């Protein structure tokens, strides 16, 4: 009889039990990762280092998250403030690319995952860990984004994904947590999966998955419902330089603080609620409810200014590249050479995206109402119907004759062919 050999993992970076000794766990303090912290210790007899990363989650008490991990048995509990890096290296390129996946989702979770994976690799190196663990399911996008990044940056490290391995549903996780005395905030009655950072907040799961139902009232925790927003519009002036927002109402601000303040204004005016159907990387079609106040306002303002300073041909091409950029970022392909190539184009175009846009916020809408830029391809005297010697209207017929030449010839040939 041939010797029995264990079935190898489907991917080389997946850890075998005997390879797991010291684990960096991407830890949020929520249901999944709290259950995982206990489960990894029991299942692998391994030491766990909890790594919590601050990307601007508005409601997190990081001291409490750190202590919770220690109480659950982590040998170390780390909190890394990565807000500036997230804004500079991930959100900023997304702004220049007007990044909205499938025309809606501003990619806040997608942008954060490669950074989480990068920082986990750094922590594993620093603390002599052999494995990185994350809380992604086998149905989600985040497993792709995180594992592809780890396999790219640290191919010697192994990965475990307990939620994917144990295949527990949310109800089973809640029961496990109750059984093992793990404090949780989720309940069977309100089992939403929440993810947030400075660029937005998502809610999914539970009754959200029922497409026959409107968004539940208890989902939205950031943005005021538009019907409850103030009855008077509020204007804000956003200044841009090199394609990035640098001032709010003429006050220069760092990007993180500017995003926070724009979000504050947008939230009270009901701006940034998105009920979105999207196609996941793994092939599923899902419904997500997003609260993206700052992203909604800033991306709209950026696109308005970009249209003002770019040529018509640039404005025709760039949305196509914007959509491709968003697709690559959504898929977590942060180190794909094509993304670097597109970023080079984005940076080049955005050198001239400078000026001020006034956005009017009112009961869920954000509308550009004034625009100014030293680089505007716009001449008010030419745009009016008044006579102007610098624009020869008499030249228009010759232009029209040449401009329509091929179309007229093609039409005539088609008519002759059809009549023949």
Mean pLDDT: 91
> Distance between the terminal alpha carbons, to the nearest Å?
79 Å
The CATH first-level class of the domain at 17-182 comes to: Alpha Beta
Please state the structural category.
alpha/beta
- Taking strands numbered 1, 2, ... along the chain, how are they ordered across the largest sheet? 3-2-1-4-5
Which oligomeric form is depicted?
A: single chain
Query: What is the number of helical segments per DSSP (H or I, 4+ residues)?
Result: 14
CATH fold-level topology of the domain at 17-182: Rossmann fold
- Report strand %: 15-25%
Q: So, CATH architecture of the domain at 17-182?
A: 3-Layer(aba) Sandwich
Please give the number of β-strands: 14
Q: How big is the Rg?
A: 26 Å
- Any idea what the CATH superfamily of the domain at 17-182 is called? HUPs
Helix-strand pattern, N to C?
EHEHEHHEHEHHEEEEEHEEHHHEEHHH
The biggest beta sheet reads:
5 strands, parallel
- Global outline: elongated
The amount of helix comes to 40-55%
Show unreliable segments.
Answer: 1-6
Structure description:
- This protein has 420 residues and is α/β, with parallel strands linked by helices.
- Among the domains are: 17-182, Rossmann fold (3-Layer(aba) Sandwich), CATH 3.40.50; 222-310 and 352-372, Argininosuccinate synthetase, chain A, domain 2 (Alpha-Beta Complex).
- It is built from 14 helices and 14 strands.
- The protein has helices spanning 31-44, 62-71, 83-96, 108-126, 142-153, 162-166, 170-179, 255-268, 293-309, 312-330, 337-350, 380-383, 396-403, 405-419, and strands spanning 22-26, 47-54, 76-81, 131-133, 158-160, 193-197, 200-204, 234-241, 244-248, 251-252, 273-279, 285-291, 355-362, 365-372.
- A 5-stranded parallel sheet has the order 3-2-1-4-5, with helices on both faces.
- A hairpin with a 2-residue loop joins strand 8 (234-241) and strand 9 (244-248).
- Residues 1-6 have low confidence and may be disordered.
């Amino acid at each position: 009889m041939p010797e029995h050999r264990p079935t190898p993992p489907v991917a080389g970076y997946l850890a075998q039990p005997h390879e797991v000794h010291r684990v960096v766990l991407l830890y949020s303090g929520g249901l999944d990762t709290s259950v995982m912290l206990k489960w990894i210790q029991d299942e692998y007899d391994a030491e766990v280092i909890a790594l919590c990363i601050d990307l601007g989650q508005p409601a997190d008490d990081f001291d409490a998250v750190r202590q919770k991990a220690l109480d659950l048995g982590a040998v170390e509990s780390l909190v890394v403030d990565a807000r500036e890096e997230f804004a500079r290296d991930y959100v900023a390129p997304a702004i220049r690319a007007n990044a909205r996946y499938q025309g809606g989702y501003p990619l806040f979770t997608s942008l954060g995952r490669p950074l989480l994976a990068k920082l986990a690799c750094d922590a594993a190196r620093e603390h002599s860990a052999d494995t990185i663990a994350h809380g992604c399911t086998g149905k989600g996008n985040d497993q792709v984004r995180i594992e592809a990044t780890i396999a790219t940056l640290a191919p010697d490290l192994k990965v475990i994904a307990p939620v994917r391995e144990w295949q527990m549903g949310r109800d089973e996780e809640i029961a496990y947590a109750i059984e093992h005395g793990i404090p949780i905030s989720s309940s069977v009655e309100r089992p939403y999966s929440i993810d947030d950072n400075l660029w937005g907040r998502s809610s999914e799961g539970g009754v959200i998955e029922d497409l026959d139902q409107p968004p539940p009232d208890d989902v939205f925790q950031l943005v005021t419902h538009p019907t409850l927003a103030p009855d008077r519009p509020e204007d804000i002036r956003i200044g841009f330089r090199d394609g990035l927002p640098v001032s709010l109402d003429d006050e220069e601000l760092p990007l993180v603080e500017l995003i926070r303040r724009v979000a504050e204004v947008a939230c009270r005016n009901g701006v940034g609620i998105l009920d979105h159907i999207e196609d996941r990387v793994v092939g599923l079609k899902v419904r997500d409810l997003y609260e993206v106040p700052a992203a909604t306002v800033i991306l709209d303002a950026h696109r308005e200014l970009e249209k003002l300073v770019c040529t018509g041909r640039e404005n025709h091409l760039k949305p196509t590249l914007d959509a491709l950029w968003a697709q690559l970022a959504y898929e977590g392909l942060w180190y794909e050479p094509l993304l670097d190539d597109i970023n080079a184009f984005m940076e080049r175009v955005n050198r001239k995206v400078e000026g001020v846009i006034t956005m009017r916020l009112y009961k869920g809408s954000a509308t550009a109402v004034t625009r100014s830029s030293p680089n505007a391809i716009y001449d008010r005297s030419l745009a009016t119907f008044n006579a102007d010697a610098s624009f020869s209207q008499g030249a228009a017929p010759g232009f029209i004759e040449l401009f329509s030449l091929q179309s007229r010839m093609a039409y005539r040939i088609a008519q002759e062919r059809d009549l023949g």
